[in-house]
Amino acid sequence: MTKIECILRPGKLEDVKDALGKFGVHGMTVSQVIGCGLQKGRTEVYRGTEYSINLLPKIKVEIVIADRLVDEVVKLITTAARTGEIGDGKIFICPVENAVRIRTGETGESAI
């Protein structure tokens, strides 16, 4: 099993959810996060004073899938989330040792 964590633009969440849903991936965790990368934030003016906003709002999507699906799912996410601009996000891929469904006690891939 593999965990895929994606940091995305907030406006791309629905596109990614739709693409994953059509592929058959329905279980996911979505969090609102803030962070910075190559975008390096932006500068805004509030009441005549200039402020530097270094941490920008992003969405973090976490899914755990079977190892055989990783390449296809990463390609789906990349296609759905890409705008071609700096700040499109990142995808992190990590191995998962085991998973347990609390309700039934199922383990491994049957738990996801």
TrEMBL record:
| Pfam hit, one | P-II
- Which cellular component terms (GO) are annotated to the entry? cytosol
Q: Which GO terms describe its molecular function?
A: ATP binding; enzyme regulator activity
Supply the InterPro entries for this chain. Answer: N-reg_PII (IPR002187), N-reg_PII-like_a/b (IPR011322), N-reg_PII/ATP_PRibTrfase_C (IPR015867), N-reg_PII_CS (IPR017918)
Q: Which UniProt keywords apply?
A: Phosphoprotein
* Residues where O-UMP-tyrosine is found: 51
One GO biological process term: regulation of nitrogen utilization
Q: Does the keyword Nucleotide-binding apply?
A: no
Which family does the record claim for this protein? Belongs to the P(II) protein family.
Give the PANTHER family listed for this entry. NITROGEN REGULATORY PROTEIN P-II, NITROGEN REGULATORY PROTEIN P-II HOMOLOG
Q: What is this protein called?
A: Transcriptional regulator
